[in-house]
Amino acid sequence: MSIGLPRKLLAGFIAIAVFMTGDGFGLTFLPKYIVDQGFSSSQASLMFTMYGLMAAVAGWASGVLAEMFGAKRIMLIGAISWICLHLVFLTMALPSGSYALMLAVYAMRGVGYPLFIYSFVVLISQTVDPGKLATAMGWFWTSYSFGIGVFGAYLPSFTIGWVGEYGSLWLSLPFAVAGLLICLALVPSTRNEKTEGMSATEKFHELSRGATILVENRQIALAAVVRVICNLTLYGFPVIMPLYLATHTNGGGAWFEVSQWSQIWGFQFVVTVFGNVFWGGVWATVTAGCGRCVGSGAGGACSARWACITFPASSAAIWR
Questions:
Q1: HEC secondary structure over the chain
Q2: Confidence (pTM)
């Protein structure tokens, strides 16, 4: 396609946007909702930190798992685990009022979305021509931003006034299920002949490369550090700002409704959407003609990169 969007992966990009809409539903209001249930801001922040820790572990493993067992299969496992744990969170953890149960279930839910979206990154690398890979990744981040940032923020800003925060958390389920079904029906499967004949020991060794590659490749390690720095505020802000802007606690002035804050956050990602496509195209031009690494090492690099992004950014949100 002339805009650089791979036609055979179009359904996958749509699945990412739809699924991440569901995942992003609670991002802008859940911290305040937890505090409104009688918990402290530090407890609310710790929930997001543990969520980030589990997402980091899943992000580390997703690339190599997708290489070894198939990207589509790992995507489906990630989506199903997210949906099941979200149901447990809504039907058991939140109503129980038990902070320990809420913390454990919400943290475990963090495993789901990295397996779903970062396995798709492996699928992109396996099916897209190397010269178009940067543009394809621009579209991946566009889909991600549309989901978690635009629709995942703007839709709750309207539903909160209609069904409240708890009801809005339930409304995230149809989007997650829809993303799962799109993936199941329309995302293509791929085969990796290199890993199909591996023994269990060899597969474990390949999985470990998701961590050792940070030591073996200095450029990837530096890129991971840069991404950690860039994402400290990006993923810390959604925890802090609804408490500061929409309540009188923690030095806040309750200047905005939580729905208004959601729209502010969503507008940032509206701008991000255009930047993702633009910079993907620029990088494709800059790197035109350059080769790229293939095989399980690429999956390991993807895994290590995302493991380094999520947890530090979330832990930065712990505050008093």
A1: CCCCCCHHHHHHHHHHHHHHHHHHCCCCCHHHHHHHCCCCHHHHHHHHHHHHHHHHHHHHHHHHHHHHHCHHHHHHHHHHHHHHHHHHHHHHHHHHCCHHHHHHHHHHHCCHHHHHHHHHHHHHHHHCCHHHHHHHHHHHHHHHHHHHHHHHHHHHHHHHHHHHHHHHHHHHHHHHHHHHHHHHHHCCCCCCHHHHCCCHHHHHHHHHHHHHHHHHCHHHHHHHHHHHHHHHHHHHHHHHHHHHHHCCCCCCCCCCCHHHHHHHHHHHHHHHHHHHHHHHHHHHHHCCCCCCCCCHHHHHHHHHHHHHHHHHHHHCCCCC
A2: 0.82
| CA 268 – CA 94 distance, rounded (Å) | 30
- Split at pLDDT 50, 70, 90, the class of 302 is very low
What is the model's pLDDT at position 314? 39
Task: Please state the rounded mean pLDDT for residues 78-102.
Answer: 96
CA distance 281 to 89: 40
Q: What is the pLDDT of residues 243-278, one digit of tens each?
A: 888 888 777 778 888 888 888 888 888 887 777 667
Q: How far apart are CA 46 and CA 187, in angstroms?
A: 35
Residue 136's Cβ-side half-sphere holds a number of Cα atoms within 13 Å equal to: 21
